[in-house]
Amino acid sequence: MKLDTEGLDAICNLVDDLCGIYLDSSKDYLIEGRLADLVKKHGCNSYAELARKARLGASNPIATDVVNAITTNETLWFRDATPFNALKFKILPELIDAKSTTLFPRKLRVWSAACSTGQEAYSIGMTFGDIVPDVANWDLQIVGTDVSSDAVRRASEGKYSQLEVSRGLDQVHQSGYFTQAGRDLQINEVLRSKCRFEVRNLLQPFTTLGKFDIVFCRNVAIYFKDEDRKSLFRRIADQLNPGGWLFVGSSESLTEIGPEWSPQRHCGAVCYQPKAGMLAAR
Ligand SMILES: C[S@@+](CC[C@H](N)C(=O)[O-])C[C@H]1O[C@@H](n2cnc3c(N)ncnc32)[C@H](O)[C@@H]1O
């Protein structure tokens, strides 16, 4: 099915409204490649008709299909390595130490915002497990959210093929955190019990998720318009506990997240904390 100008405009506006991903005519190949099957599946004669149908009523399954098809869910275990080294050798030991004198010395909350199929959230859990032997006795809460319901379903299942597990995961983590489930490998019970996943659009309010000690928001804001990106990182700052940390993707920097953040380099990773005035100013 050929994408004409009317269809292009209708799909770009729809995708912007559904998940904030910015598309224009330079992405016509991507729209055709990912949505052509949906045009047929939903009995439409054009992309414009698909967009019109997707807008009918709340929780529309066509809209859900469009989001699942248009999002790029590429991810890896321990993606880029350095953020996880910073977690392991600097951020987690210091947070654990700081928590030890508080009312909840064994409570730690981490948000994998745009978690895709779960590898990022589980890698955070494995990093915690690498340095804290009795994880089961910790109130470790890792919350993974993503706008794609397909991705969130897969993350919640925590089941991966041998090929998926071998992409980026060393033998120690492969044997330490999985059980065999038929031909697949499943994240073990202890780690799964520390992680929960839900569908969330980052461009909508997320205050109900509560406060976090660490937020990973990596390789997603690159798809948003400048004003959406700035607003996202300002709202993330509001969700951080005092002394909390933000990790962004390796190609993302202060230019994208805003000058209100203070960068620090640890173990080759750049991690961010809100500047003192940022929270007081609101
Ligand atoms: C490239 S993946 C990054 C996954 C992981 N954070 C990583 O770095 O490996 C981008 C993810 O962002 C999600 N996404 C795109 N727009 C979103 C939005 N508005 N709200 C929440 N998630 C979104 C996509 O569904 C996709 O799973």
TrEMBL record:
Keyword presence, Transferase: yes
InterPro entries per the UniProt record, alphabetical: Bact_Chemotaxis_MeTrfase (IPR050903), CheR_C (IPR022642), CheR_MeTrfase (IPR000780), CheR_N (IPR022641), CheR_N_sf (IPR036804), SAM-dependent_MTases_sf (IPR029063)
Catalytic activity: L-glutamyl-[protein] + S-adenosyl-L-methionine = [protein]-L-glutamate 5-O-methyl ester + S-adenosyl-L-homocysteine
GO molecular function annotations of the record: protein-glutamate O-methyltransferase activity
Keywords per UniProt: Methyltransferase, S-adenosyl-L-methionine, Transferase
EC number: 2.1.1.80
EC category name: transferase
Domain named CheR-type methyltransferase: residues: 1-254
GO biological process, one term: methylation
The protein, known as: protein-glutamate O-methyltransferase
Organism this protein belongs to: Posidoniimonas polymericola
